[in-house]
Amino acid sequence: MDTVGSELIPALLTARVKLERLRHGVSPFVLDISLEVSPGITILFGPSGAGKSTVLDCIAGLVRPDSGRIIAGEEVLFDSQRGVSCPPQERRVAYVFQTLALFPHLNAEENVAYGLDGMPREERSARVQEILMAFRVDKLRARRPAEISGGERQRIALARSLVTQPRVLLLDEPLTGLDAELKASILDDLRAWNAARRIPILYVTHSREEVDALGERVIAMDHGHVLSEGTPTQVLEAPRRKRLAQAAGFENLLSGTVMDLREADGVMRVRLSESACEIEVPLGYAMAKDRVRVAIRAGDILLATSQPHDLSARNVIEGHIVAMETRGTLVRARVDCGVEFIVHVTPGASRTLELAVGRLVWLVLKTHSCHLVEE
Amino acid sequence: MNMDALLLSFRLALCVSAILLAGGMPLAYWLAYSNWRGKFLLEAVVALPLVLPPTVLGFYVLLAMGPRGPLGKLWQTLFGHGMAFTFEGLVLASVLYSLPFAVQPLIASFESVDRKLLDASAVLGAGPLKTFWRIILPLSIPGVVTALVLSFAHTMGEFGVVLMVGGNLAGVTRTVSIDIYDHVQSLEYADANRMALVLLAISFSVLSVVYAVNRSVGRQIGRRLWTPWAAN
Asked: Rounded to an integer, what distance in angstroms lies between the CA atom of residue B56 and that of residue A198?
């Protein structure tokens, strides 16, 4: 299906986009971003309001940037200097919206065939049939969007975008609200589809779990800027900014002062602000007396109801529970140790340990569960 | 019963609603989607007939159509006779008078189409025209039916504008409502009543049809308005 040329030259999407939006009552939103998306899936990750969807809108041509250049393969889609701005219907950029935007009055087959006007009837129905099979929704061809389940709708939205043989695929949190298994199965189908075609796919998400599950190249952005890029581990395990750290699932962000460095052990001691609490964290770029922030995941903290002995973990802190709350399959406890920690335990553990508000507990932190975060 | 008057009213209402549907759609499209700053002015002009007394509207239309009015002069050179007190003049006046009844339901239904669907249509390669025919219009069918029926029924029942612009010429400009007025003036209450009943019956059945169609179409395209209390 692909021409020889497009197989030899891997299609690349490059976008440099600047955009300023006045907002009522607050400082203007500034988007200033430059990214390169190679064939395969690239994740655009950041908290809501970071400007991720606006980037996609600019690439698709639904929003016109103030300045910049967007190139897909060899085609210039937008170039403010040369006055080029290709309208969205001519860009061949497929875009799956968070709301999917399936046409409610058309059935699945008509939805998928929508982008194939002007093609001979037999070829069109063959293409539609092929992609419906690839995404395993060929049995639903006569159903309207309101008559099918969420996961099936997502498959049909993907099929509708991809059947047009786009140059680029943009996905705006297309799989939110699906359970992990369904998500994985849809992603497998998407990967299988793209294995032969190798188009750049830009996948927007604010969910850390999704980044881990996809495991591809990540571009992290916030406040309209790129913060870092790399593998999920590089980008997520060493969060560089407070807001990103929160987005990456660090429930505990504590500020403190470096007491002393123990370079031989590769650690340093940090006293958490306004408390007598001292913890050992991995050596970072800091000097004694520097103020630092430490990020710890609530799920990385162990909880004991009697003082633990003989542990490899270096940090054992005494405190008592001030609040407990059950959220689905985990219990979220707030523990006051002079500073407040948030700890996640399973409901079973909570029952066995008879955790309750007011109970004296000890928190156990492995040194390498404590991440230094730049101020 | 005066069948002439009834047929004339029908013919007038058909012409007017056809013209309003054809002309109202592009106007409503523009009013629904344009970002022009001065749009509110045109919106106000379109809504004017809702608040103006029909006599005021009729008066100015009559002046424009008169032998010294711009429209009247143009008509005279084109067709060799005046425009006032003709069927065509009546059609023009009625189109203006019923404009908001056609345009406002269209605007409302165009605006209620999810903008994301328009974005989706564009990124799937459709230009504005295809998007209108394939997405906006099918999803606006209840609005189109409402516009059509309201302009038809409103024209059937109009009185003030017709009287000002058309006068009372049998077979040319004497519509149902004028006929009723005539009968009442001559104290022929029985005749007036027959005519009035016909108009009442027509208006009621026409409106019933609108609501029935809107309900079934709305259900088909999944756009039925409902409250949680009416779910069962």
From this structure: 68
Phi and psi of A374, rounded to 5°?
-65, 145
Kindly indicate whether the ipTM for this predicted assembly is greater than 0.85, answering yes or no.
no
pLDDT digits (tens, 9 = 90+) for A80-115: 999 999 999 999 999 999 999 999 999 999 999 999
A227, A254 Cβ separation under 8 angstroms: no
| pTM recorded for the entire structure | 0.72
Residues 142-161 of A with CB under 8 A from B: 144-146, 160-161
Asked if A195 is an interface residue toward chain B (Cβ–Cβ < 8 A), one would say no
Q: Domains, chain B, ranges and CATH?
A: 3-33+54-218 (1.10.3720.10)
Chain B residues touching A115 at Cβ < 8 A: 124-126
pLDDT in tens, B121-141: 999 999 999 999 999 999 998
Mean pLDDT along residues A159-169: 92
Q: Do B222 and A94 count as a contact with CB atoms less than 8 A apart? A: no
The Cβ of residue A227 has, within 10 Å, a number of other Cβ atoms equal to: 18
Q: Read out DSSP for B64-82?
A: HHSTTSHHHHHHHHHHSS-
A167 shares contact with chain B (CB less than 8 Å): no
Q: Does A115 touch chain B (CB under 8 A)?
A: yes
Write the CATH number of the domain with boundaries A252-373: 2.40.50.100
- Is there a contact between A175 and A154 (Cβ–Cβ < 8 Å)? yes
Q: What is the CATH number of domain A4-241?
A: 3.40.50.300
On chain A, the residues whose CB falls within 8 A of the CB of B144 are none
